[in-house]
Write a structure and sequence with these properties.
two-stranded antiparallel ribbon; 14 helices; 34% helix; alpha/beta; 409 residues; 10-stranded mixed sheet; 19% strand
Length: 409
């Protein structure tokens, strides 16, 4: 019998705030945080959801802050807060039994773009020797391990926008197998570079509501026209439930199920019937020993793009039926943090179970298409059950679903 896996700590750094409490308040307000972004000024899409008031020098110290890129800074802060939230002291844990698994979709291109400028100017001598360690995707997990003295398995998952959710699923396997006693799992991303914004714009993936950016991200709404770039990090502390309870840890939820499935369909477009998403959902339900009727709410991937939201709605209808559970989507508030999105949404799902409420979808006015989901709109809605799923779907048809239950279920 597989051991129960407990979530004992949460760490969040997002456009909604730098603590779990601030994030929860912003989610329940249901107001988009998209605004004009000075870094993107002059581009066809010049707005994003930024992490505001983030002082890396204060948070992690001037020297380490200068050594690492922004996505690593986010990971360090989120990991520290998750460990503190779990009541753990890195000075006393068995370091070789503590793992770190973080998902990164694209990391930050800002370092690369800046250093390429030196090459373009014929000055290779100006390229920083820190360019690679500042920006290699695996360095987020590496720096967290260094910072906290966690010397167990340490690596990065890369499954596009499902990366953070995949990391949590892999962390669960490390705990189930007995390889680790504790795993810090999640994702981090800061892809608000001019290059990233331009690439997504050229793909017609971003919303172009330049005159009203706060209305741009609108998951499942009939008027959706693309996603809004976001950034941030989410880290969960995972432990075997028995071990967590024996040390008196605050068990916030249980990670009961994980499922993954590939569309095997197209490099960027989802399967129109959501085949891979359906497989991932059903695998997570089977892993947890749950049926579709056990799910109290769904934290959707909900990018606010026409094709993805339609495919996701189809997948939910296939799995849960026409009268499925309430659906929310955090990207309406915080935008799309790409590889970190699944980890941030996992933390939000835990918070929803803890608070007994489902936050609303920002900017939702009405649906289109053949499938009518029960979208939570306008205000939070009470949770009427004890299990929830968080869904993450990415380029390449990579799909991951996490199933959480309330701690006493």
């Amino acid at each position: 019998m597989c051991p129960d896996i407990a979530v004992t700590g949460l760490g969040l750094v997002t456009p909604a705030g730098h603590t779990a409490e601030a994030n929860w308040t912003a989610l329940c307000e249901g107001r988009s945080l998209a605004a004009a972004d000075p870094e993107l000024a002059g581009l066809p899409v010049d707005f994003s959801c930024r992490v505001a008031d983030f002082d890396a020098d204060t948070e992690i110290g001037r020297a380490p802050a200068r050594r690492v890129d922004r996505f690593i800074q986010f990971a360090l802060v989120a990991a520290r807060r998750a460990v503190a939230d779990a009541g753990l002291d890195p000075r006393t844990w068995d370091a070789e039994r503590v793992g770190v698994v973080l998902g990164v979709g694209s990391n930050s291109l800002s370092t690369y773009v800046g250093e390429f400028g030196h090459l373009g100017a014929g000055r290779p001598d100006r390229v920083s020797p820190l360019a690679l360690p500042r920006s290699v995707p695996s360095m987020a997990a590496g720096e967290v391990g260094i910072d906290l003295g966690a010397s167990g398995p340490n690596f990065t998952t890369a499954s596009a926008c499902a990366s953070g959710a995949t990391a949590i699923g892999v962390a669960r396997d490390l705990l189930r197998s007995g390889t680790c006693e504790i795993v810090l799992a999640g994702g981090s991303e800061s892809a608000r570079s001019r290059m990233t914004a331009t690439c997504f714009t050229r793909m017609r993936a971003l919303s172009r509501r330049r005159e009203e950016p706060a209305l741009a991200s609108r998951p499942f709404d009939a008027g959706r026209d693309g996603f809004v770039l976001g950034e941030g990090a989410g880290v969960l502390v995972l432990e075997r439930a028995r071990s967590a309870r024996s040390r008196g840890a605050p068990v916030q939820a249980l990670l009961r199920g994980y499922g993954a499935g590939a569309d095997a369909h197209h490099p960027v477009a989802p399967h129109p019937r959501g085949d891979g998403a359906v497989r991932a959902l059903r695998a997570a339900l089977a892993d947890a020993g749950c049926g579709p009727d056990d799910i109290a709410h769904v934290q959707a991937h909900g990018t606010s793009t026409p094709l993805n939201d339609a495919a996701e709605a189809t997948a939910f209808t296939r799995v849960f039926g026409a009268d499925g559970p309430p659906v929310t989507a955090a990207k309406g508030v915080i935008g799309h943090a790409l590889g970190a999105a699944g980890a941030i949404q996992a933390a939000y799902t835990v918070l929803a179970l803890r608070h007994g409420q489902v936050p609303p979808v920002a900017n939702f006015q009405g649906q289109d298409g053949d499938h009518k989901l029960d979208i939570v709109a306008d205000r939070p809605r009470p949770v009427t059950g004890t299990a929830a799923v968080s869904c993450s779907f990415g380029f390449g048809g990579q799909n991951a679903v996490l199933l959480f239950t309330a701690a006493d279920w």
